[in-house]
């Protein structure tokens, strides 16, 4: 088995464990490359079926391409789609230009997800996060409990060894399952390439720009790139070190920081 | 000689994490600054040297003008010393041009459009702060050799660098080690004090709602920043 | 260079130089992102300090926090021979659970010992865990040789101590190498100051190690994970060792029923066999009652089917275990309730002192040799024969202990 085979087989094992352990499970499908790769692996694990719902958190500010892609492939793959929206916030006018981006994301993404989990009483969620995405994620486990407030106590997690994952979930907790934890961004692209996984066109360069991560249209800045095929993307990744999330996350932090510094009289 | 190491934004949790023994001394802890609505540098240091809550007065000057505050020796506890030396303290002997330039660049950074530009400004900003730090270090060490009965050295590096780099642990670790070494060179009665600490916002740093203190004299518990004026006055003069 | 990866951990007592060594390995093999060292140098210079390699790790950690793709839980470098992955295993006592989680994935280990301090508490605990996890490829590096002027006598005396202690726990290190992580001596480069030492450098020694050999050549163990009935009945699971082929005559344990493999099922693929490591499905000629936790084997080499197991366990939960308490025994996908019939010995994992014999309690970070009685028979193996069925965890709500089977009793 080569490197990608190993990753694939390990992920399938994890997905099957999660499905066995938790009845009320769903996959969080942001339509991004990671969660779509995860969806692909789910279909492999279950011989073409997706035996649980796919949750899509809709901020209503997503790129049009995302909605189109979602509806097209949900249909083709026979996916039961559950769309979560924070209707209350949206109807009260929340949006990225309404308030700072931090509260916008908080309400339209995090709160919407909380509400949806509450409503459908999911006990476990499959997520496409990777260890190499962000510092704190290095400490993530494959099966990671979250309390109702989504808090994660990373200092005192049960050990996870020999593929024995946490399989009990208590009270209000839900378990986040991370079958792609060991993959890198490059692995994802190489796998997409090998398997020919359909991917939202936003990732591919148009007029010298492409999106490295996708989310809400107003909050995503494209990066300079000429990679208009998966091939070129893999090549580009092997040679660049630009932060994947830097665009999105840092913008938010900057906005918050500016507000704070102003309050402290610095500017 | 009594020495006060006044460190802006020295964060209790980092002193612990990096185990800065000299900064900790025998007794150390957090200060209580809950009486202030915001942990503002100028408000806190002014309150420290006068021994009373100066929030209203300082805030009334407005965000721009407040940085120009220059209190009179007579209004501070420094007057109880014969020959005090106060280096760069906000509200007293603050080196305005330097710190004004730092604030200006902080604003440039957030106003800058491109990543490239931001990167350059950050580098320039850091250099400016480090350069000043070396200068104050020098001045402070000279003062320690001098004929003073009270020396206060104000070190802004942790705050200034922290605002744009607090998430850069290795940079902060190096700064804390450096400050710890400075504390280690002082062979007099020493009080380490910060106005507030700092907490992380991604790569950036925001003020936290408590300060830091330490001394070899006695356990102060959870003191207010205004408690120090009286306390320091009452330290018996040794040597 | 071929495409194989060797995963290893660096363990040792706090401050003996783990971070410095990792920084040095990355630097000497040219694996640091461009400009990184310069950046750290620059901060050091701004403050008028000398550069320390330990900062490299802090710095990488930060980079990643800024979103740059560097994984310090898994740090990579390569030599001419192959790729290496350093698995992060934090040194502090509180992190022993993380250390175990990390080390359980490693194929080799480097144990670092400060030449001035010698063997310390965590040196022992970590070494013990390595032994328990069955890591047989171990290198000892004796660090900070520069501090003692590369003195051979002191090195030899520390080496003697270490070897004696390792012998007690049956670890035979392949090499004991004097190094200075700080100066870079005997990491990648030899230096003349230690011409009394004629062994390999650390990198040379690592290159001699073998990557985990494929389990394809071991007897077949296909462990059942689940039964799916989407379009047809498929028995899914993972081939833990051996190779399973269409048409193979197979036996299901623990029932002992026999049948043949009708097909190997992989989505959208036409395959007739599956090797070790594959998560696949099978269908069988006869419709047997098969359930999660069953083990499919070829006739011949049998694992043990038993309800009594002798094992060494490492307790890692704050709440001690008291005899009489029921626990879950989980080995591969088998999960049964069990009790501990006897605690033969309890050992302090840091001093390795015997705490008690025929004990009634096992506390946090203690190691014990115990006899487990499971409620139902399980299919297990001596750890040295087939790891995947020779290791298990014990749990309450969460995993409390990891263990390896020394003797599956028939
Ligand atoms: N002289 C000398 N000092 C060293 C050497 N290796 C490490 N050190 C020093 O030893 C101290 C501890 O080194 P680290 O690499 O931080 O130790 P560690 O084992 O990673 O410790 P933790 O990160 O706390 O687990 C640092 O001050 C290093 O500079 C060496 O080869 N020679
Ligand atoms: Zn301040």
Task: Give descriptors for this structure.
heterotrimer, A: 267 residues, alpha/beta, Rossmann fold, 2 domains, six-stranded mixed beta sheet, two-stranded antiparallel ribbon, 8 helices, 8 strands, B: 239 residues, Alkaline Phosphatase, subunit A, two-stranded antiparallel sheet, 10 helices, 45% helix, 18% strand, globular, binds guanosine-5'-triphosphate, binds zinc ion
Shape of chain C: globular
> Biggest sheet of chain B, in brief?
6 strands, mixed
Number of helices of chain B: 10
CATH architecture of the largest domain in chain C: 3-Layer(aba) Sandwich
Based on Cα principal axes, name the global outline of chain B: globular
Whole-number tally of structural domains of chain C: 3
Strand-residue fraction of chain B?
Answer: 15-25%
Strand segment tally of chain B: 8
Class based on secondary structure composition and strand pairing of chain B? alpha/beta
Mean pLDDT over the full residue set of chain C? 84
What percent strand of chain C? 35-45%
Order of helices and strands of chain C: EHHHEEHEHEHEHEEEEEEEEEEEEEEEEE
InterPro entries (chain B): Alkaline_phosphatase_core_sf (IPR017850), Phosphodiest/P_Trfase (IPR002591)
Pfam families (chain B): Phosphodiest
Protein name (chain B): Type I phosphodiesterase / nucleotide pyrophosphatase
Enzyme class (chain A): transferase
